[in-house]
Amino acid sequence: MEMKKEVSVEKIKKEAEELYRGGFFCSEAVVCSIRDNFELDVPDTVISMASGFPIGIGRSKCVCGAVSGGVMTLGLFFGRTKQGDPKVEKNLLLANELHDYFKTASGKNSLCCRVLTRGFDMGSGEHKEQCIAFTGLVAEKVAQIVIREFNLVNTDELVAAR
């Protein structure tokens, strides 16, 4: 897959957060930010495929939508399209890395939306800032994984080195 070789992880994170603030849900924002910043030649339909994951898959409050979007995005880079293709093992390993990272980094030791939003009045939208932060956290980690695995350049590190 063709992709941009130099990206800003910080820009990806901030853009995912802004996309959420602007009207996309968490999973859509993660997919859109990664796709756009890595300049992946994939159609807008990949974003629409992420539309069922918010608020824990269709508002069921199960698996965090941001993480679901992150796993979808990892699949764009590392997933398989043919039965029996062993590259699925790498994809599963990286999806598990994202899973474990989020459980720790969120500070809640869970991927369950119900647990992550416990104590929030969902009707009032008070959970939104936390979910925006989780969206950025996931987009950031996915970008870091892609950069590491493809030996790409995080332009933030170039700026910091100057």
Polypeptide structure, described:
With 162 residues, the chain is an all-alpha fold. The chain is built from 8 helices and 2 strands; from the N terminus they run βαααααααβα. A two-stranded parallel sheet has the order 1-2. The longest helix is centred in the C-terminal third of the chain and has 23 residues, at 128-150. The termini are far apart. 37% of the residues are buried. The model has no long low-confidence stretch (mean pLDDT 95).
Sum up the structure in keywords:
single chain; 162 residues; mainly alpha; two-stranded parallel ribbon; 8 helices; 2 strands; 60% helix; 2% strand
Concise account of the structure shown:
With 162 residues, this protein is mostly helical. It contains eight helices and two strands.
Strand portion? under 5%
Task: Give the uncertain stretches in residue-range form.
Answer: none
Q: Which secondary-structure class do the elements indicate?
A: mainly alpha
Rg is 15 Å
Could you report the average pLDDT, rounded to the nearest whole number? 95
SSE string, helices as H and strands as E: EHHHHHHHEH
Distance between the termini: 31 Å
Give the CA-based shape.
globular
